[in-house]
Amino acid sequence: EVQLVESGGVVVQPGGSLRLSCAASGFTFNDYTMHWVRQVPGKGLERVSLITWDGGYTFYADSVKGRFTISRDNSKNSLYLQMNRLRSEDSALYFCVRERGRLVDHWGQGTPVIVSS
Amino acid sequence: EIVMTQSPATLSVSPGERATLSCRASQSVGSTLAWYQQKIGQAPRLLIYGASTRATGVPARFSGRGSGTEFTLTISSLQYEDFAVYYCQQYNDWPMYTFGQGTKLEI
After folding, report:
1. CA dihedral (A57, A69, B95, A108) positive or negative
2. pLDDT averaged over chain A?
3. How many angstroms separate the Cα of A37 from the Cα of each of A1, B15, B76, B98?
4. Averaged in consecutive runs of 10 residues, what is the pLDDT profile of chain B (107 residues)?
5. Which residue of A has its CA nearest to B54?
6. How do strand B19-25 and strand B10-12 relate by DSSP bridges?
7. Cα-trace Rg, chain A
8. Which of B4, B99, B101 to mutate to test the interface with A (most CBs of A within 10 A)?
9. Which residue does chain A place closest to B92, by CA atoms?
10. Torsional sign, CA A58, A59, A60, A65
């Protein structure tokens, strides 16, 4: 069974930094492109970033470009999102997501990030 | 960026009734359209991909149709567990995939 378990979400002050982690199991992690998708409570879904299986290609939404960095450690079956210079509009539930052939097919339960003073 | 527009925003129906949700793309996405179901406090769950293919374990009462810019998700006979928010997503324009704003299905 595919499992994605996010962690690292907390309350942080504007301008602060945070690192999210995602532990993957139940599939061959290094075969898949992985994503971070976020959702403001009661709102829709927004793609944040993705990284290919080998880390050779990364993509960022314009809203986070230059502030967030996605990475992975295939030896640990783990995905990360380093979030710097956080803003109030970054407050959301962050999901770790697996992609299969361009299709987002499995989601973690999410970890909440609250940016507030 | 391809904009996905869902309608209606909220759909009120009764258990046992049929529900039809719509999704429109601002430009053609072929058949690269997925539907997700999200219940309160849960992660989205993939229901339909390729516009009409049910994901593993999805009941046959869920069906998807459409291509190009117009898509529908139909739930033939609503069960209580189907009341949730449904999102469409295009993945034709990778990595610039986009989601609709969601349709809330309520009793």
Report:
1. positive
2. 95
3. 21, 32, 30, 11
4. 95 94 97 96 94 96 97 95 95 92 93
5. A105
6. unpaired
7. 13
8. B99
9. A102
10. positive
